[in-house]
Specification:
The protein is of the alpha+beta class and about 260 residues long. It contains five helices and 17 strands.
Length: about 260
């Protein structure tokens, strides 16, 4: 890994900004547009923000935790940073691509690294129809919502909604209902990573639904299609022996 052209970025948190100044004073840094490696200081939310911000360039990102959980980050340590980056293990992620059609007739496309979710907008439960590769699999689901998660995102909202944890190399996506009232016994499905998921909103005037791609929301959605974007490769760097594959595997044994 070439460490000659590094850019440092940080969240607005005071601890992240203080660390940013210390690292910039200690190590030579470039502007974001010239960097071949980006060091991101913050929490998991800021890592997602940085990945979205640099998605077109697809520059490797090495995160250091200046937030809370830090699942996508490495431990913060100022000494030996260049050696750590040079020896880091790379994980490649492919985001989902969401295409949402709204009641106004607009069509919006957004990427999602963790998950795409559909959620009711009001007190009324959502009514959804779910198709996979052109075949209707759930004719009508009454629920708070549903989400499609990547392996990298399977330990986030998906896990909170009682969805499965997916190893990075499993080659599947998790389709997980959120507080389903009908059908009661459906707990979701594992889909091939190449599947195209279509979700139609039934009775959208009485039961409006919004859609969220990571942190970007589209309201009053009538139809949604989601599939993995294999043309986009996002690169995360982790210290040796502490890669994302191991972290996800370990989550399955936390008691």
């Amino acid at each position: 890994m070439n460490v000659d052209r590094i850019a440092f970025v940080a969240s607005d948190a005071e601890i992240a900004q203080t660390s940013l100044k210390r690292l910039q004073a200690r190590y030579a840094s470039k502007c974001l547009e010239e960097a071949e490696v980006i060091v991101a200081l913050g929490g998991d939310g800021y890592m997602l923000h940085t990945l979205h911000r640099t998605m077109e360039r697809q520059v490797p990102i090495y995160g250091m935790n200046r937030g809370t959980v830090g699942f996508l980050m490495n431990d913060y340590e100022e000494d030996g940073l260049l050696d750590r980056i040079a020896e880091a293990e790379m994980t490649t992620l492919h985001p989902l691509r969401m295409e949402a059609q709204t009641t106004s007739g607009a069509t919006l496309q957004l990427p999602a690294i963790n998950e795409v979710s559909m959620l009711r907008q009001t007190r009324q439960a959502a009514k959804l129809r779910i198709s996979v590769d052109g075949i209707v699999r759930v004719k009508e689901m009454i629920c708070d919502g549903v989400l499609l998660a990547t392996p990298a995102g399977s330990t986030a909202y998906n896990l909170s909604a009682h969805g499965p944890i997916l190893p990075l190399d499993a080659g599947v996506l998790a389709l997980t209902p959120i507080s389903a009232f009908r059908p009661r016994r459906w707990r979701g499905a594992l889909l091939p990573r190449g599947a195209m998921v279509r979700i139609e909103v039934l009775d959208h005037l009485k039961r409006p639904v919004s859609s969220v791609a990571d942190s970007s929301e589209v309201r009053d959605v009538v139809e949604l299609t989601i599939r993995e974007d294999r043309g986009c490769s996002l690169k995360l760097l982790f210290d040796k022996g502490h890669g994302l594959e191991e972290r996800i595997l370990n989550e399955q044994f936390i008691q």
